[in-house]
Structure formats: C-alpha cells, structure tokens
Write a structure and sequence with these properties.
Elements (H helix, E strand, L loop, with lengths): L26 H12 L9 E4 L5 H8 L5 E5 L2 H14 L5 E5 L2 H7 L4 E6 L11 H7 L3 E11 L11 E7 L2 E6 L1
Parallel strand pairs: 1-2, 1-4, 2-3, 4-5
Antiparallel strand pairs: 5-7, 6-7
C-alpha cells in the first residue's frame, strides 16, 4: 500500500493483512475519492474521523495533505498496533488520535462533530445499513461536512435523505452523504 498524495506521497507501508479481517480500499477507488475530496475539502482545516480504520490508510492520506486533527477507530488489535507503529514512523503522533474500540460504541459515546467522516466497514456486517442514520442521529457531521461510506452493491442507500452521490469502482461503491 502507498500514500498517494501530499508530503508523504509515494511512501509505502505494508500491513500484515494476510491474517486480518480487513479489506484495504483499492488504489483506484482511493485515488478517485481523493480527487473528489481535493475539490471539496481544505485538508489543513478539517477534523477527520476514520471508522473501521484498518491499516490507517485514510488517516495517513489526510495528514500527508496537512490535516492536523485525525481520529482513527478500529477494534482489531493487530490493526491498531500497526497504525500506532506507522504513526510513530511517520512522526505524526500529535495529529492522530487512536481508539481501539467497537465503532458502534464509539459512535454511541461520541460528542464530537467532524468535517469529514469515512467508514469502511466489513461488507457483510449486518448493521452496515444503519451507519448513515447513526451518524446523522448522533449529529456527528458538521453542517457542511461529508460522510463517505464504502460498501458493495448489496447495500443500497439511494433513498436515504442525506445521500448526495454514489461512485462505483468495480465492486466497490462510495456513497456520499451531507
């Protein structure tokens, strides 16, 4: 895996993902997402939340582009340990808050609002369909904020009142909510 933009562009990191229950975002989907975000976000001033953060790839991309307020949440201990080591290696510790906990518990207890929220849950997770509603019920998104949910075609959010766009990259869909 590699960082695709900003001051760490080209830096590679290799999580031992062979034994992880995680699925990294494909490079093509990640590049397309960041091309979209480049036109919508001032990376240097946003507060970002990465749910089901896995390898931390989205966090590194945001910090690489100047973001200084990143929150990472994942309950899988080896992924969290990998992210802690990578954050230390990149010397970005002051910008990244790491929570090893269940995402739904984090959402339930959160009182913070974010400019950008990204969620990449396991595709087969039964509660995946509830994520957009939970984010908006808990008022986690700032008024002009963006929530991006990565999922597969088995989940359909076309009728969701906050959905603004859906992009498809192979079997990966990115649904945008505002």
């Amino acid at each position: 895996m590699r960082i695709i933009g900003g001051k760490f562009k080209g830096r590679r990191f290799d999580p031992p993902a062979d034994h992880w229950p995680t699925r990294p975002t494909m490079d093509a989907a990640k590049e397309a997402l960041f091309n979209i975000l480049n036109n919508q976000i001032d990376f240097e001033s946003v507060k970002m939340l990465d749910l089901f953060g896995g390898s931390g790839s989205h966090c590194y991309e945001f910090v690489s582009r100047g973001c200084e307020d990143v929150t990472y949440v994942d309950k899988f201990a080896p992924a969290v340990q990998f992210v802690r080591k990578t954050v230390e290696k990149l010397e970005i510790g002051p910008f990244v808050k790491i929570f090893q906990m269940d995402v739904f518990r984090f959402i339930d207890h959160s009182t913070t609002q974010y400019d950008y929220i990204f969620a990449d849950p396991p595709y087969g997770m039964p509660a995946l369909d509830t994520l957009p509603d939970l984010i908006f019920e808990k008022n986690m998104l700032l008024p002009k904020g963006i929530f991006v949910l990565e999922h597969n075609p088995h989940n359909d959010f076309l009728e969701h009142p906050h959905l603004t766009d859906v992009r498809k990259y192979g079997k990966t869909l990115l649904s945008f909510f505002k």
